[in-house]
Known about the structure:
Helix content: over 70%
Shape: flat
Strand content: under 5%
Number of helices: 8
Number of strands: 0
Number of domains: 2
Distance between the termini: 55 Å
Structural class: mainly alpha
Low-confidence stretches: 98-102
Order of helices and strands: HHHHHHHH
Amino acid sequence: MGDDSELDAQFREIYDRYAGPIVFQLRKLRLTEAEAWDILQEALIRFLAVSRRRRKKIEHPYSYLMRSAFRLALRYLDRQVTRSREKQAFVSRRHSEPQDARLEAAEVLELIGARLDRRGRRVLEAMAVEGLNARGIARRSGVPRTAVQRRIAEIKKLARRMKMLWQRK
């Protein structure tokens, strides 16, 4: 029980000492205040998730937290840019063609691929271009079939979400 109160005290000290300066630096990246605080909280959670032994080796918590928060902010901003580009592609496509026109398959795959990580794009390419199923992709890449099936489910979910967005517009 003493370990929890000690950890709480350490966390409170780190939070009180570094939260303001880190949020100030994140705001320079043109994040809203709420976004900056959310990113700081994620960085602090990750800091606490690090093992006790490894946390003791971190000599400068501010540097560690700032680096972590900066990376999280860059990922967040990258996602925002990707979403903005997708939205622009949908809007420009919709206004340039008749209402009943459909996106070409290649464009849909490109939009879906932009939202996926590297492994997801590989699975998408293997399915769409090479016509492989989950078993074939798993065999070729040397990963468990269940992992490939999860990726495929993620891709299908994203495709359904994008279809719903397209239909709303």
